[in-house]
Design brief:
mainly alpha, 4 helices, transmembrane helix, transmembrane, GtrA_CellWall_Glycosyl, membrane, GtrA_DPMS_TM
Length: about 140
Amino acid sequence: MVKQAVKFGIVGVANTIIDFVLLNFFIAIVGWPILLANTLSFSAAVTNSYFMNKYWTFRNNEPTHIRQFSTFALISTVGLILSNILVHYGTELLGTYDFNLTFAWQYNIAKAVSAAIVLAWNFMASKYLVFYERE
């Protein structure tokens, strides 16, 4: 399990980079609202996460993509809802106090906290509900 957790962490770092780059691109360059940007950046990272975790982290070669991806998508939807709540309210909270932070710093700090919490949820749910070993 430790080896899988390390691999999951490596995949998580890659997906976090994808998530943050797209989030900042969608907000700063495209001008989209934070929840739309977060939803799309999170979704892109999650899709990448499914394939990297299926074939590398958990070495799961079962051809059960529909069942597995459906379960993974449901787990990721819970993670997305949690992420959106944390990013939205975290950004608002950081903007409420005079921390002298720009809006970009506010949503990036909120996103970092959110990513850490959602990472733990996603690992446990993926290991035990999606890519578990059948006996």
